[in-house]
Amino acid sequence: MEDEMTLEHKYCRLDDTIKVSDGVVIEGYASLFGDQDRGGDIVEKGAYAASLKRLAEEGRQVKMLWQHDPAQPIGVWDEVREDARGLYVKGRLLETVARAREAVALLEAKAIDGLSIGYRTLKAVKNDKGRRLLQELELWEVSLVTFPMLTSARVGAKGETLGQDDLREVAAAFEDARREMTRM
């Protein structure tokens, strides 16, 4: 049985759906519905609705973190909502925070290219292929990350996009690195 208090992370590499403008504004999708990630999970439409409603009712916000580190907030998400495609976020990297300035430089240089959600699973079922369908999630944070998990999406910079072969190569390299780390 899954521990209900476990905080999980979903990494999402996005194509041209995330944009950085004015040096500090970020917007795009942190999660895409219906896409299987490397862990075999699929987030279903509506999975975030109850959590976003609770946060609004309690006057709380989804946090913007650097690499899931709660000691490193780097900005604020001004808008977090579900739509037909997924979990849309729009926020600001805070220029007065050193790590946020570094994040802007790294995004512009394409040294980082991902978003990742930090959440707790409240309701999930297995489909006929043994994949976990995430039906209700308690969303805690959305982080800028180096290694995203959802290979069908990624960050684009100034209109540039990677082809499918590029994505497969990156995915294979990440999987090789993960295997090596588990052997240590």
Automatic annotation (TrEMBL):
Pfam families: Peptidase_S78. GO terms for molecular function: peptidase activity. InterPro entries: Peptidase_S78_dom, Prohead_protease. SUPFAM superfamilies: Herpes virus serine proteinase, assemblin. Keywords: Hydrolase, Protease, Viral release from host cell. GO terms for biological process: proteolysis. Residues 22-158 form the Prohead serine protease domain. NCBIfam families: proheadase_HK97. This is Peptidase U35.
